[in-house]
Design brief:
Blueprint lengths: L1 H12 L4 E4 L5 E2 L15 E4 L30 E2 L4 H7 L3 E2 L3 E6 L5 H14 L4 E5 L4 H10 L7 E5 L3 H11 L3 E5 L16 H18 L2 E6 L12 H5 L2 E6 L6 E9 L7 E7 L2 E4 L18 E8 L2 E13 L7 E4 L3 H14 L7 E7 L11 H13 L7 E3 L2 E2 L5 E2 L4 H10 L4 E5 L13 E5 L2 H8 L5
Parallel strand pairs: 6-10, 6-11, 7-8, 7-9, 9-10, 17-18, 19-22, 22-23
Antiparallel strand pairs: 1-2, 1-3, 4-5, 11-12, 12-13, 13-14, 15-16, 16-18, 20-21
Helix pairs in contact: 8-9, 9-11
């Protein structure tokens, strides 16, 4: 009996072998192809066993704890990057020692934006180090000439070794460090090629440690997977202070920059940029990009105001309804959610008695903007109804509202801000759901109609005939 108890204690002290996900840390007794925690494929690897728990004696205190009211808050003040639209997303600028991860699809403009940010920061008198692992120094220089990003205090290094990059930081002590990208830098202390999970974790941890030690603002470029997620270990998003996503259609010039994580500012701001041959330019008033000519009244078009973060953008929705040539009508969308358009078509058929089931339906947005919020339902419905009836909406009309399955219009958030933007751009009347706006929120010169049901909006703006 004593022998049995002793063997049990001995086996309990022995490390147990198992498997762990390199992305999220999920553990399993046996190997599986797909992680049960994060769902990633091929990330579960074998581990030799967990070391026995160890205790550590208390060490000396280098910095005694302070009362929270006595902590100097000026250390977390943001400094402008010189790019107002980028500052908007960051919450005013970059904080000393902050590390921001900038992600986006290949060719969308990440390197162009950060090179412009680096040059503008250098012109403000800061020392900037730009390390690239994807291109040669000559290639970056050519891009800098093209976008006018040459500056006296901007240093450039083409490195792929982590130790050499850290040595460059040691030599220059920059105020701003740009790394393009974290997947192209490797450490000789870690096995594997650049870009694998272990390498990305080591490179990110080393750069973050250097940034915190030197109060060095840091911008890191990160690749994305084919599913749109950030490539590398999931812990990378937790290590950095700010995560910024770069969005946009490669066939259009508009680029949207938004923060999905920000320890120093809001996450509901959006920066708008125009990517052209001469570089990337901030757009303080991008609404005009999403509107076609407003001089003519054309059936099948409607205008709405969407909220990107806290920024209102006036967008145009276009629709074409034609008699179906085949047995099954086609439903094609661009810039709008396909399932929501199908729902709006069903509501038009059921509650407005419009014969949409006999027609092919094509719905698109102008300028490549993507409308994902439910507040654009009413614009899509009126554009389709206008095309089917071959009657345009009255000139100068903007519509906002979510369409419910019962045919009702539901109130949406931020209607007052949307109406203010519409009034600023010269629209004269607006249609919104009942109870979504108060009299004091209506801007001068804008007549607002509050409607309860979709059928009432269609009859009031288009009429009942075809």
């Amino acid at each position: 009996m004593t022998t049995t108890s002793s063997s049990r204690r001995k086996s309990a002290r022995q490390p147990q072998s198992g498997h762990r996900c390199t992305e999220c840390g999920w553990t399993s007794v046996k190997w599986v192809g797909r992680c049960g925690g994060c769902g990633a494929w091929g990330t579960v690897v074998e581990i030799d066993g967990a070391p026995a728990g160890r205790t550590r004696a208390a060490g000396s205190v280098a910095r005694p704890a302070q009362l929270i009211a006595e902590v100097d808050a000026t250390a977390a003040e943001a400094a402008s990057t010189g790019v107002p639209e980028f500052d908007r997303v960051l919450g005013g600028g970059l904080v000393k020692g902050a590390v921001a991860l900038v992600t986006g699809e290949p060719g969308i403009g990440k390197s162009t934006l950060l090179l412009d940010v680096a040059a503008r920061a250098a012109r403000l008198g800061r020392t900037v180090l730009y390390v690239t692992g994807e291109e040669s120094a000559a290639q970056v220089r050519l891009r800098a000439e093209r976008i006018d990003a040459l500056a006296d205090n901007l240093y450039l290094a083409a490195e792929s070794d982590l130790g050499t990059a850290l040595a460059q930081i040691e030599r220059l002590s920059p105020d701003l460090f740009v790394l393009d990208s974290v997947q192209t830098i490797s450490s000789t202390e870690v096995d594997g090629a650049a870009g694998n999970v272990s390498q990305v974790r080591e490179v990110a941890a080393s750069v973050i440690a250097a940034a915190k030690e030197r109060d060095m603002s840091t911008l890191i470029v990160g690749h994305v997977t084919k599913d749109g997620g950030i490539a590398g270990p999931r812990v990378l998003e937790h290590l950095v202070d700010v995560v910024i996503t770069f969005e946009g259609d490669r066939h259009t010039r508009l680029r949207l920059v938004r923060a999905v994580k920000n320890r120093y500012g809001p996450t509901d701001e959006v920066g708008c940029f125009d990517l052209g041959e001469r570089g990337i330019l901030g757009l303080t008033d991008p609404s005009g990009l999403f509107l076609s000519s407003r001089d003519m009244e054309v059936p099948g078009t409607s205008v709405t105001v969407t909220l990107e973060g806290r920024r209102p953008l006036v967008c145009e929705v276009q629709s074409l309804m034609t008699r179906a040539s085949a047995g099954s009508p086609r439903r094609t969308t661009s810039g709008l959610d396909h399932s929501r358009i199908a729902m709006v078509l069903a509501v038009l058929d059921k509650h407005v008695k419009m014969p949409v089931g006999e027609c092919d339906c094509y719905v698109s947005t102008v300028g490549g903007v993507r409308l994902s919020e439910p507040a654009s339902d009413l614009a899509a419905a009126l554009a389709m109804a206008s095309s089917l009836a071959d009657r345009p909406l009255p000139r100068g009309t903007v519509v906002v509202g979510e369409v419910g399955l019962a045919g009702e219009l539901r109130p949406t958030a931020g209607v007052a801000r949307r109406l203010a933007e519409a009034g600023r751009l010269g629209f004269t009347q607006a249609v919104v759901p009942v109870g979504s706006v108060e009299a004091g929120d209506i801007p001068p010169g804008l007549q607002v109609h509050q409607v309860q049901r979709l059928a009432d909006a269609v009859r009031g703006l288009i009429g009942s005939g075809r």
